[in-house]
Amino acid sequence: MRFLLFAAALVVCACGPASQAGSVPVYSCEVVHVYPHDRQAFTQGLVYLNGDLYEGTGLEGQSSIRKVKLETGEVVQKRDVPEAYFGEGIVDWKDRLIELTWTTQLGFVYNLGTFQPLSEFHYAGEGWGLTQDGRRIVMSDGSAQLRFWNPETLQEAGRITVTADGAPVSSLNELEWVRGEIYANVWQTDRIARINPATGAVVGWIDCTGLLPAADRDSMTDVLNGIAYDAKGDRLFLTGKRWPKLFEVKLVKK
């Protein structure tokens, strides 16, 4: 979420600081392909669907939902969120696109094809990230807990606490369902947690330190945030808030 500047200089990302290592495996990111990304997009949610990216952006007065061409970064469809709301995570469910807002405890449901608003819904606490596993929607709220929702009613149906070596992992942000695991950006870090959805245990750390080279950063560049997965092509995409690039990466165990 919000704002943080950090410097980096590597093209390949390493994984998991020593203090987080413990018994949890550590992975690095090998860059497979680099795509353009809108430098003005304060990325909050990212979804790959049928060859395109769907992106939710944040900040009051600047939030939007978008459909983006992967290869060019061109925004081909866009709807602005009302200025009073700070847009957060997004997820597709059937013919709908669902979006959270940060502190207003209000979510929006849109038609996936047209972006026309369909309904609103309420939830307790903050809204951060969303993903789905084909049966449930998974939601993060900035804590160490993940909530599971009924995708039709958008009502909570359970929770897990995310832990690494027995310690809670807080600041869970943008989410993605990847090969039976939940991937979660850890806000204000270059790390992504790979989470067992049944137990909440972190089964791997991905550290993307240096994924965006120092030469591509400016005074507005913010944190790593944005995970999308192409299940058919087995492709993993990562970006960040106000990053000019989006990366297709391959994970390599260290």
How is this structure best described in words?
The chain has 254 residues and is mainly β. It has an 8-stranded mixed β-sheet, with no helix packed on it. It has a 4-stranded antiparallel β-sheet with strand order 2-3-4-5, with no helix packed on it. Helices cover 2% and strands 51% of the residues. It has one helix at residues 18-21, and strands spanning 26-36, 43-49, 52-57, 64-69, 75-80, 87-93, 96-101, 106-111, 117-122, 130-132, 137-140, 145-149, 156-161, 163-164, 167-168, 172-178, 181-186, 191-195, 202-207, 224-230, 235-240, 245-253. The chain has one domain (18-253): Neuraminidase.
Layout of helices and strands:
Layout (H helix, E strand, L loop, with lengths): L17 H4 L4 E11 L6 E7 L2 E6 L6 E6 L5 E6 L6 E7 L2 E6 L4 E6 L5 E6 L7 E3 L4 E4 L4 E5 L6 E6 L1 E2 L2 E2 L3 E7 L2 E6 L4 E5 L6 E6 L16 E7 L4 E6 L4 E9 L1
Parallel strand pairs: 1-19
Antiparallel strand pairs: 1-22, 2-3, 3-4, 4-5, 6-7, 7-8, 8-9, 10-11, 11-12, 12-13, 14-15, 16-17, 17-18, 18-19, 20-21, 21-22
